[in-house]
Structures are given as structure tokens and as C-alpha cells.
Records
---
Amino acid sequence: MSAKHEETKIVEEVQEDEAEAMLTGISSNISLARKEAPKNLKKQAKRMKLISDATYPPVDIGGNIIIPIPDVDREKADLRNLIGVVLERNKDGLYKIGKKDGILNKLYCRSEFDESPQIFLTQEQVPEQKISLRTAA
């Protein structure tokens, strides 16, 4: 019985060693994945930016645009879109938009509006007053 007891003890020790080795391997894999995660997120962001730039080409300054107005910012009888003109574009690709009532106080990314083929408004027609989208609607 003591030989069988020793054999059982040896088997348990071997199983513990295997479990410990497996946990160490899993732990090192997790550490490696955590180190790689920021690099992979940056790569994914670059890919997304390239796709977005290809889908939404830049709009020239002075170009007319159409901004869809969210339902919460407009009343039932209000128009669904807002006509504006691009006043400037910053280095991050965000656009300052002007309207006959004034300059919208938020900067817009290219995916938030569509370019209009017609000219409705010029930069000179936009007053220097800041307004919100809700006010402009």
C-alpha cells in the first residue's frame, strides 16, 4: 500500500507541475498580448483612417455642404438638412462650417456632411457670430 501511495503522490506532483507550467504559459501569452495590443490598435486606426479618407474626399474651402440635422435638434416642421459653407479646415481634418445666421460652434469631420454640387452660400455671406446647430436649424 505504501508503494501505491508513493506512486499516487508522484502522479499528483507531476500533474501539479504540468498545471503550473500550463498556467505560466498562459500568463506569458496574456502578457505578450497586452504588450501587442497598443500597436495593433494603432495599426487598426491607420487602416480605418485610410478607408475613411478614400470614402470621404476632402471638401474645398468655400465649398457648399449639406449637414443632416438629428431629430432631437429640430422640430417636426423644420427642414431635415442644413446648407452651409466650409470656412476652414484644420490640420486634424475637422471643418469649420458657416451659415447665413453665423458660424456653427462645433467642428465637423468629413463623414458628418455631404458636399453640395450647387452654390447656395459664399464665405462673405457668413457673419462672425457663433451659433449652435439647434439654433441654426
---
Amino acid sequence: MPRDGSADQGFERTLRESCIAKLAGWVVSQPREMNLGMGLVTASGVLHEIDVVAQHELTVGILELKNRAEWPPEKNDVIVFFAKILDYLCLSPVLLRSYLLPVFVSSYAFEQSGLAACLGLGIHPVAPQLRPLPILIDNANRMLTEKDNGLAVPSGDALALDDFCARIRNMASLLAGADANARFDYFSDLTIAVRAFGGVAVAELAVDLRAMNAECSRLIQVFRAAKGG
């Protein structure tokens, strides 16, 4: 049965077109990609549609997209996405020769269990007012560089930036083992290793991630004002 032009499909099409236009040098998958953009099959024998796969040299971005106002992404959505990736990995360990970047993009805010599951499974969540941890780290480094280069910001905000950076470093340390590239190891074309990771209070970290995003947005405005922008 042909698929209709639903809101989800429109969101996927728009994001794919944006990736093609803005990611110079990246190879972006076609609609309804069933082989992870690399002609791969699964251990289960059942292929899974991956919304967008973007490849650049040794980096493979694997994107799940949701556009549901009435039903925000929750833990089952995230776990199914993780299972799709694992199904390909279990038959094609060669994937681990690349840097895997699983990303879950939602046009609406995550349900709390969905956000926590993303953190625990090493999936980068993206939503309105929600930057993933690598983007927060990049934003923090840019602001630190501007401050170190002499940009004058109020002393209270300079201290707030230091606290913000410390919180980011702590979260990055706690979640380092969740990253797919740390969790899985390539041994041979027939063998992978999986490191156990867990015991982290991801529900609390999900709350912290939202708070750090709000603080990041506030600090960005402070720095823009300091530059006269």
C-alpha cells in the first residue's frame, strides 16, 4: 500500500532536503532507505526503514524523525530505534569501523521517558529548545573562547558560564560509556564486543539536560548582548 504525504513524511522530506543542501561532502540517503544506506541486511532478516542516513568519510549519522504533536517521543520509540541499529550491527560488525552517530529528532518536545532512554542508550536527542550534549559542549567552548579573548561579560554571568561548563563535563563523564562507539567494539567481520553500561540516573540527567539547555540559551543571549548583537 502506498504511503500518504503525512506530517511525519513531510517533516522527513524537509529535513532530508536541508541535509542535502547544507551538509557539503555528505552522502544523504534516499527516501524509504531500507539498507542503512550501505546495502546492508539485518540479523533478523527483516529490513527496517531508517528515516535519514548521512555519511561523510568514516562518520555515519543515523537519524530517526518524529513529528507528533499528540504523542511525543517516549521510551518505546527510542528503544525501537536502538533495536533497528543493533539488528544491522549484529550481522555487519564492519559498521563499527565507522564513527556511529545515532540521532533522534523530534519537532515536538520529548516525553521524559523518551529523553531518559536517549541518554541511557547513547542516542543524541534533538527537539525545540533541546540541544544534544555535543552541541552544548560546542556552545560552551565557543563562549569560553570569546571570554578568554577579552569579551567583557558581567561577572555573575562569567561565573555562571564556569558552572555551566562544569555541569556539562560532569554529564559527559557520566554518559561516556553510553556512546555507541564506546559501548560496541569491532573484533572482526564476524565478531563484536559489547561493554556493559548502566546504573546512571538518566531520569535525573534528562531533567538536567533540559535545565542546561535553558541556561545555554540564556548565556548565548548574554554573549550576543556583550558583542552588541
---
Amino acid sequence: MEEEILALIELEGCPEGPLFRPDVPVRHVEEGFLAGWENPLGRGASQWFVLYEGGRALLAQCSNSTGTFDQCLVTGDLLWADYSVEARIRQMPGIAIGHSPDLEFEPTFNSGRRYPVYESGLVARLKDVRHYYFYGIREWKKLVLYRRSDLEFVDMVAVDFPCDPKRYYYLKMGVQGKRIACYVDGELAFEVQDDAYPTGKAGIRSCAECRYDNVRVTTSRQAYNFYISRRRAEEEEVEKLKERYPKPVLWREIGMGEWGSRFLKFGRISRGNWRILVAQAGDSSLTCLTALDVEGEILWQRGRPDPSSSGAAEFQVGDIDGDGVDDVVCVWDGAIVVLDGSTGEEMASRPLPYGSRREGYDFRRIPRPGH
């Protein structure tokens, strides 16, 4: 059967180093060697690296944490239906992450969430990072196929498979209609029938230190042609829908200057009129907050602008005192502060309680009046 390559990862000539770092806006390496692939968990610290082993460039997942800190790379289209995703995978020795492969592990639960144990493998028909099929190696002991739906992880198949952490295994998962077939080293390990997810993206996923090589996604010519016809039909439908709605027209551009930032909110901070708030942040608190009207005129500014600021800190806008004017709640210089939205003057403040650096403060739950 004639085969079409939908996606692959080819790292020959790629420099060693980290990939998909959220603090690096220009990604020449990713665009050159992993074009079409994305890190859907990109808001957190990426643990993907390019390493060389025996003179060959490999994709390495270097996280040593189970729990919620799994790593994932995906590619493709939500309309992909019938295809195969495959890779050579080596799940590294337990000693590399502080545990022995001989130790017993059981999934733990917290508020209904199943925390993954050590797993490395493939994903197929991914709708989002909470809905997909996974096939891979679990704890150096089993081959497992499960279906994830939000916080529910359903093991569809789990078979004993003593895994040698010193070698690579060639895993392949093929999805065709309801059939999901899983292979290891060219031999069929098992297959099941399931129609929960008829289409979706492909990728790799791991919550254990591991290495990936020869990552490929392929399909048949017939399946590829069917996908192309569906893609064109959807694009035509989208164009018809777009014609029913007015098109956006650029009304105004506002230059930000030294106080510019990617963090902004809208609020009724002046006589019930909508205004714009732009925040700059340091390590964990705001360092500059600028209020301006929709004409671009600065109404007030608190703190000192810093064009090199790249930190992130949450702040919220809401009518705290019920006077009909929105106020600002934020962390500023070690205190939680309420600012008068009209003037930027401090209305109230209180020092933050002592806590570890891993503990955060969630201001998104502050309700607005009437909500």
C-alpha cells in the first residue's frame, strides 16, 4: 500500500540544547527541525532537549517528575482520522531519576485526578491535552493503551512487558476507523475496537526521562485523499460562515513606549467608561501599572516603566467597594494591594503571608458585583 508521510522529526545536524522554551520568542531550531510540531503545554518549563547519543541526534525528555508534569509534542490536524504514529523509544533507567525500575508504583489520586506513573509513548487522535489515546511503556513493566477523557484515564489494555531501560523499543500505534492496533518491534502486541475519538492530532508524550528517535506519522494514499477532501469542505464552510458577519476594521493603533507589556486588562475605572490597564511585572509582583483611555492618553501610572520587563504576575479588575467604578487588586512589593481604579491611589494593603515559592495567589476568583 502506498504510504504518505504526514509528519516526522528529523534532527540530523540539529545543535544540542533545549527546545520549546517559553522565554525564547524566536525559535529558529524548532522551525528548522521540528516544523509543524508544537508543545501544547508550552506555558510551563519545557523539558525537551536535543542530545547526541553515539553520534546521532535524539529527542530527549529530561523531566524527572511524574504527577501532572508530563511533557507532550503534537502535530497535525483535528481532522486526521486513519494513520499510524511510531517512534523508537528508550525509557531511561530508574537510577537516572532517583528510582529503581524494580520498585512498585501505583497511580495516586488527588481531587479525582489520576496522576500518571512513569510512562513514555505515543498519542493518537488527540483533541486536546485532556482527550486522546496513549500507547506506551509504563514503569519498565507493561505495555499499556489507555483513553483519556478529562480527569478519567481508562486502561483499555495493559500487558506485562519487562522492559530493558538500556535499549530502544520501536513502538507503533495505528488507528483506522474503530480499530486501534499497537505494535512493538514490528510485532502486533494487541488491538482493540473503540470509537470515542474518530479523529485528532498525533504526537508523543512522556512523564519519565526518555529518548525518542525516528518519530513519524504516516497514512495511506486513500486516507490522505479523504482527509484533503474533508479539509477543503471545512474551509469552504468556514468561508461561507465568514460572509455572514461583518469584517473587523482597524480603528486605532496605540503606541506603548517604555510602559508596554503583553499583560493588559479592560475595566470601567472612570465614570463607567471602559479603560485599558497595562501591567509590567518583576519576579512575582507588579512593578508598573498604566491606565489609559481608548484614545491612548495616559490617565495615571504607578511605578517606574521598564521596557526590559518580561515577568508575569496576575492582577484583577473589579468593583471592590460597590461604588460603580472598577478597582485593581494586585500583588505589589510584597503585599496584596487594592488600588482606586480612577486614580491609581492605594485604598488598602496587607503583607502577603509567608509561603514557599511554589505557592501562588489566585486573584481570578474575585467576583464582580452581580456575578
